[in-house]
Design goal:
Blueprint lengths: L1 E4 L2 E4 L5 E6 L2 H5 L1 E4 L4 H7 L10 E8 L2 E12 L4 E7 L4 H10 L1 H16 L16 E6 L5 E7 L7 E5 L4 H7 L1 E5 L9 H4 L9 E6 L2 E16 L12 E17 L4 H4 L20 E3 L2 H9 L14 H11 L13 H14 L8 H11 L2 E5 L6 H11 L9 E5 L8 H4 E3 L5 E3 L1 H9 L9 E6 L6 H4 L1 H7 L3 E3 L2 E3 L12 H7 L8 E7 L10 H4 L3 E4 L11 H4 L6 H4 L13 H5 L3 H18 L8 H17 L4 H13 L4 E2 L2 H15 L9 H6 L3 H4 L14 H17 L2 E2 L4
Parallel strand pairs: 5-9, 10-12, 16-23, 16-24, 17-20, 20-23
Antiparallel strand pairs: 1-2, 2-3, 3-8, 4-7, 5-6, 6-7, 8-9, 10-15, 11-14, 12-13, 13-14, 18-19, 21-22, 25-26
Helix pairs in contact: 3-4, 10-12, 11-23, 22-23, 23-24, 24-28, 25-28
Length: 730
């Protein structure tokens, strides 16, 4: 089993390994901080002994039969609300000299970058050695408490892999066999993605990206030299002085489109790489890539003939893997396999004897992918809870392995303590049912597994009362080191004991947790506010075909479902958090979708039901995922979003509500339905000739958006018959 956190790593299959530390500046200065997740490993190596809080214990570090003194300190990190371990040797100059000599590559790189940062008054992040140049120290237990054996893994030079963004000058640069970037921008500042040019050396590999695809790969023939701007770039606004690299271009046929690989490459740990957290390309010129990233790219493009210089020595690669115990990244499934995987899930559900309407599974999947909070609404007994259970089961998440949890909501829940937990009279934190799942899901060994939480009948109590903290924290999702993180759910004031701080401290909503609420709408339940509706897709289960019977042949079908059952959480995790994450690669679809929403918003403003950026972004993400995976037509997908994100906001008894419903109905029917919607006439007269076309036994009109049209007919009918309408009336 692999355990990894920041600059520490461990493979539990390697005997006596306490952990592997990536070499950074602290190693050369005074020692290293040990993450709390690795405290148990050092405790085991010390045979259950540890320093007292605020004190240190002498440590013996053994390397090649030589002993070096250090100290293991246990300190109270008050700002973080937890205890910390630090291994320090700042007084041992002999050991520090050994480390500088052994890891001269990291030392030179770090000191040069620190010098560059001092020369540039712009604030820069802490220097991080790129992964393909990293060096490591392995700590091994010796059987003696506070004595650790060290093994050093220094850097071995090999070709670096780079990524260059090229625009209109790519053909001219190809003809000349060059790359060129200026030394300074117009304000006289150095830019990181130009400074990388001076690191390029002979034999390096460069991927050339232009117009949404990697179109060439090249091998460097001459390292960078300072040179004036070439004639091919005379029309650019760049400064005249720059650096030039000579390289031999080879065209890739066919070009490799960004959407073929961006999600997989995002899972490779690329420091200062070319892709941002949403899978789009960063603005800039020359970015670091890696040999591991190149191998992933090649594995995804079997149709491309890669030149020999890009094919890594397999024996050497295997040797490096064996010696360095390299962490294999957890990758999402490719876009082209999603349809097959969803079919496997549907087959699993049918074999269990359950049937759901066409596109419901695809819709449920896209909704979860858009945001990890989905509401399933409808009359009792339609299979809402069963859908969640079977969908999770198809992905290997069951109640037995703890990856599926059903939480029945009680009518007396009135604040988040019922769900998250509370501090008892003794000062100990008593976790609620949801907190227990979150703790389990964030464990290192579980972070790749999907966890499903089904809030059954979640509106028996007022959702805004007991679920408010969760909704607020869900909105703090942000990208950190390639993963989605949120703010803490449990306040530090609730965690008095060190045991509680370790177990529940810094607990947010892990990216592998998916929340689904089932709701009934009747006299025993509460309606939803727009705060809740904005944050979820609402799938409805009100239209049931009772004449569906188990198919014996389907039940005994022996299709292998293992592919879906072995999927990691990236199958469901969102790829986009903000529209900027997706805009550059999906601009046309985003603009089309937004233009539709602008027109709809103009109607909704009259009844104060218009949407904001949160809903716009969610709808755009749903549409993008649908287009990527080719699950439905664009009109079908927008129909579901109109039904699930827009219509639940409409309610009231005023004539303005009637006008909005009629205008939306006209749009949902489209021009090919054969149904005429005369809004002014229907505002003053009986609208039953319109909405009764969806009555039982009628042949339904051929609508542009049939799901929304049927719901709008229902809402119009309720408005006329009851004098009030809502999406939720049943």
């Amino acid at each position: 089993m692999i355990k990894q956190l920041r600059s520490w790593w461990k493979d539990t299959e390697i005997p006596n390994l306490i952990g592997r530390k990536k070499v950074d500046f602290s190693i050369f200065r005074d020692g290293t901080h040990i993450p709390v997740e690795f405290h148990p490993d050092f405790l085991e190596a010390n045979q259950g002994q540890q320093p007292s809080l605020g004190e240190g214990r002498k440590v013996k570090l053994v390397h090649e039969d030589r002993n070096y003194e250090a100290t293991l300190f246990k300190i109270d990190q008050v700002s973080a609300g937890r205890e910390a371990l630090q291994l320090r040797y700042n007084g041992n100059q002999t050991l520090k000299n050994l480390l500088i000599e052994t890891f001269s590559h990291s030392y030179s790189y770090i000191m040069q970058e620190r010098t560059n940062q001092q020369a540039d008054d712009a604030k820069r992040p802490q220097v991080v050695v790129p992964e393909d140049q990293a060096e490591y120290i392995d700590f091994f237990a010796t059987g003696v408490p506070f004595e650790y054996r060290l093994e050093f893994i220094p850097f071995k030079s090999k070709p670096n892999v780079w990524w260059v963004n090229q625009g209109t000058t790519i053909q001219a640069e190809k003809e000349e066999g060059i790359l060129w970037a200026p030394l300074l921008n117009s304000q006289g500042r150095k830019l990181y993605h130009w400074e990388t040019m001076k690191e390029v050396k002979q034999g390096d590999i460069i991927l050339h990206y232009s117009n949404k695809a990697i179109r060439y790969v090249s091998q460097v023939t001459e390292a960078a030299v300072e040179a004036p701007k070439p004639g091919s770039m005379a029309n650019t606004n760049w400064q005249e002085d720059g650096r030039l690299v000579r390289t031999e271009y080879v065209e890739l046929t066919p070009p490799i489109m960004l959407q073929q690989f961006n999600q997989q490459i995002m899972q490779v740990n690329l420091t200062q790489g070319p892709l941002h957290s949403g899978g789009g390309v960063n603005q800039g010129y020359l970015f670091r890539f890696s040999s591991q990233g190149l191998q992933v790219l090649q594995s995804l493009t079997a149709e491309v003939t890669w030149p020999d210089f890009t094919i890594l020595d397999q024996d050497e690669a295997a040797s490096n893997m064996e010696n360095a115990h390299e962490v294999i990244p957890i990758l999402p499934p490719t876009d082209s396999t999603i349809t097959t995987l969803l079919h496997q899930i549907q087959s699993h559900i049918r074999r269990k004897g359950f049937f759901f309407p066409e596109h419901l599974i695809e819709n449920f999947y896209l909704s979860l992918k858009t945001k990890p909070f989905v509401i399933l609404a409808g009359i009792s007994g339609t299979g809402k809870t069963r859908l969640v259970k079977l969908f999770a089961e198809a992905l290997g998440a069951t109640g037995n392995n703890g990856q599926f949890t059903l939480i029945p909501v009680r009518p007396d829940w009135s604040d988040p303590a019922d769900l998250l937990g509370y501090k008892d009279l003794s000062g100990r934190f008593k976790p609620g049912p949801l907190t227990e799942v979150l703790v389990e899901a964030r464990k290192l060994e579980n972070q790749h597994k999907p966890y499903f939480i089904c809030m059954d009948e979640m509106n028996l109590a007022r959702v805004e009362h007991y679920f408010s903290d969760l909704l607020s924290v869900l909105e703090t999702q942000d990208w950190q080191e390639g993963k989605i993180q949120t703010q803490d759910l449990i306040s530090s004031t609730m965690l008095d004991t060190s045991e509680d701080q370790v177990k529940f401290g810094s607990l947010g909503i892990p990216e592998n947790v998916f929340l689904i609420g089932t709701v009934n709408m009747d006299e025993t339940t509460h309606p939803f506010s727009k705060k809740v509706l904005d944050r979820a897709n609402t799938l409805e289960f009100n239209y049931i075909n009772l004449q569906q019977y188990p198919d014996f042949n389907e039940q005994v079908e022996t299709n292998d479902n293992s592919d879906a059952a072995e999927l990691n959480h990236l199958f469901l995790r969102s790829d986009y958090l903000q529209l900027v994450d997706a805009y550059d690669t999906n601009k046309e679809l985003v603009v089309r979708t937004t233009e539709r929403l602008v027109k709809i918003n103009a109607l909704l403003e009259d009844i104060h039901a218009h949407v904001g950026f949160r809903v716009r972004d969610a709808i755009c993400f749903y549409m993008i995922y649908n287009e990527r995976y080719k699950l439905m037509s664009e009109e079908e997908a927008f129909d579901w979003q109109l039904l699930q994100k827009i219509l639940p906001r409409i309610q009231g008894s005023h004539s303005s509500v009637r006008r909005v419903l009629l205008k939306l109905m006209k749009g949902a029917l489209g021009t090919g339905s054969g149904v005429t919607v005369n809004i002014e006439d229907l505002m003053d007269n009986d609208a039953s000739p319109l909405y009764l076309k969806w009555a039982a036994g009628q042949t339904l009109p051929t609508a542009k958006h049939p799901q929304s049209a049927r719901k709008l007919a229902f809402m119009l009918r309720r408005l006329e018959e009851d004098g009030f309408t809502s999406y939720w009336l049943s």
